[in-house]
Amino acid sequence: MSLLECTQKSFYEAILDKDSALDFIASNYSSACLDIYRVTIIENLRNSLALTFPGVCALLGDECFKSAAYFFIINPNHLPKTGCLDDWGEDFPQFLAKQPQLQHLSYLKDYAAYEWLLHLAYHADCATAIDPIELEKIPEDRIEHIRFKFIPSMFLYNAAFPIDLIQAQINQADASSIILNQNNTGVVITKTEQQVMSLFVNQDDLAFFKYLFDGESLGQTIAKTTEKYPDVNVTLAIHFLLSHSLIQSLL
To answer: What domains sit in the chain, N to C, each tagged with a CATH number?
Structure first.
């Protein structure tokens, strides 16, 4: 290992562990010198998490969020893998779910995972949706074989808790209290002109969208969805996709 590599390794270890040896720093004030970098790095990462998970920050409160973020950051397994912090934070919801002091907040992991998808949608590439008339032009004998390619900013999520009610509580400081019983909540997340939207849907519609999203043909999707949800309205479900400009192309 070269001298540069050794120095980088020592610096890395010292940032995460205050008790690490600092003999690689040529200064009589090595601890004070390194603290400047340690505080800057940790604060930058913590601020990045707060930007990605503003709702989680609001739910936990500033001090509790800072503490949770700190312990997430100092775990080497959770450090950024790229130089772009927009790529970082996917493991945070699972980390929160494993913290003993947060076990009473059973909905927190669900909401954090939802916020991560909002983050991904915001940073996803923009794409032009099809004109609905394209669907009408498909021959009747071919319609059940078509597959849909969705816009890059579309994400599907099935939460175990009513994240729509949780979001309402965060948005309205004077909102009345709610009882957060487990209640599956389907949501379609997408972006329009740099604004991320959450479209809450029924379980039957969500199942229909999920089969299409996973690459099933329209015929296969209808068969599988109606087997579980006989009352699903296929026409309205497709209209939903078209009206919200979610279909990028037909395959």
So the answer is: 126-251 (3.90.930)
